[in-house]
Write a structure and sequence with these properties.
The protein is of the alpha+beta class. It is 24% helix and 32% strand. Helix 3 links the parallel strand 4 and strand 5. The protein is globular, with a radius of gyration of 23 Å.
């Protein structure tokens, strides 16, 4: 039986979303509010479904984001999401057909970069996606670990912490986020609706912990007080014969300055009836690592996070800046998007860049997947060369590119999509 791949129409959303839920092993949402939040951020015109008769058997979507790149600029990016194929329809080329349609669409929309978070990382490399950011997680034993704060944290520069209801805190949280988004590659400018979706707190997601709690860090008095940070967290109670052993499960913690950030971490580490703090998504260079008294007892782990795909190599590489002057010709392999194949001359520095086709001899040879890993400054070309994934054709070109591509701050994706 033949299948039909077509753009999602709003009346079909429930069946389309149901196919996604089944593929992921059950209900993704457990309340009307949560379901409507998912529906509200779905961009139907950028989503596709595969239909076998009246049955939806595969799904894929794309969100519109602004992606911060090294140098603080923003490129329009497609956030690939909701990808699934029914177990009954595997091994028929359906996923490949959706990826083909999607990347063609992204190119037609004028977006030079596609992004995704991978439920199974092995799937997407063959479509040109490379690991572009990583994330840090930690399990901190706060019965043995304390948090340092700057010397003036309790003095004239002190911040005051206040519990605030989620609905009342939403505007302040978004204000802090907006002031940070251009400061770190990988962060996303979001369309309206995300500020609501990211704070939905269904009981079924709490895994025995409390409802999501919010503390705002504020500096100043009265109407002149400014929100300079926030923490979103839950407390998961626990007891043992010796007494309480609860865990603070951190959803997000963010601040505009070091004093506010350290104050929030100290608060999280000193919550009554707890002896641990668990956090699952921080930048790999996050300052908390230098605030803890014992980093070993913080049980830090690092894993892959955002996957990056350059849809238009020239436009994408020209959209960011480079930490040192660079003039390198890349020989790019890209069988899935052949318009990227061939030689590209990248010239640029901290002020800007250009990337154009050239007939000049290549300096470095690599695939578009490796360019995706390098793009936000997370992965050094030297490291990729050590794995045999980048070939140096002109002596010195590898070191030149590695110095140029680095980002002063580690790229980071603050939330999934």
């Amino acid at each position: 039986m033949t299948t039909d791949l077509r753009v999602l129409e709003a009346p079909d959303w429930d069946r389309w979303f149901g196919t996604l839920e089944r593929a992921f092993g059950g209900a993704l949402v457990n309340s009307v509010e949560e379901r409507e939040a998912w529906r509200s951020v779905t961009e139907c015109e950028r989503s596709v479904g595969v239909w076998d008769g009246d049955e939806c058997v595969a799904t894929a979507g794309a969100y519109t984001f602004g992606l911060t790149v090294p140098g603080g600029g923003v490129v329009s990016a497609a956030g690939v999401t909701m990808v699934s194929v029914a177990a009954t329809h595997r091994r028929r080329g359906i996923l490949t057909s959706m990826m083909r349609r999607q990347l063609d669409d992204v190119r037609s929309w004028g977006q030079s970069v596609a992004l995704l978070t991978a439920s199974e990382p092995a799937i997407y490399g063959r479509f040109g996606y490379g690991v572009g950011t990583r994330q840090l997680s930690a399990e901190i034993d706060t019965s043995r670990v304390s948090f340092r704060v700057p010397a003036d944290a309790d003095g004239a520069d002190a911040v005051r912490l206040r519990y605030v209801a989620l609905d009342d805190a939403r505007e302040s949280i978004e204000s802090v986020y907006a002031r940070q988004v251009h400061g770190r590659p990988g962060m996303l400018e979001r369309r309206p609706g995300w500020e609501r979706k990211l704070l939905i707190d269904p009981p079924e997601r709490r895994e025995g912990a409390t409802a999501l709690q919010c503390v705002l860090a504020r500096r100043g008095e009265g109407d002149d007080a400014e929100t300079v940070g926030y923490a979103l967290y839950r407390v998961k109670p626990g007891w043992e014969p010796a007494g309480p052993k609860g865990t603070v499960v951190v959803d997000r913690v963010s601040a505009l300055d070091p004093v506010a950030y350290a104050t929030l971490w100290r608060f999280l580490g000193e919550i009554d009836l707890t002896s641990g703090v668990s956090v699952s998504n921080l930048p790999v260079d996050d300052a908390f690592q230098f605030l803890v008294s014992d980093v070993r007892r913080s049980n830090i782990r690092v894993r892959d996070s955002l996957y990056v795909r350059l849809v238009e190599v020239g436009a994408a590489l020209a959209a960011r800046t480079y930490q040192a002057p660079v003039d390198v010709v890349f020989e790019v392999e890209d069988a899935f998007c052949p318009w990227n194949e061939g030689r590209w001359r990248l010239t640029g520095d901290i002020k800007g860049a250009s990337c154009e086709r050239t007939a000049d001899a290549a300096d470095l040879s690599l695939s578009v997947r490796e360019l995706g890993s390098m793009y936000l400054g997370d992965t050094s070309p030297v490291a990729l060369a050590a794995a045999g994934l980048v070939r140096e054709l002109r002596p010195g070109a590898l070191a030149e590119a590695s110095v140029a591509f680095v980002s002063p701050v580690a790229p980071w994706l603050p939330h999934g999509f």
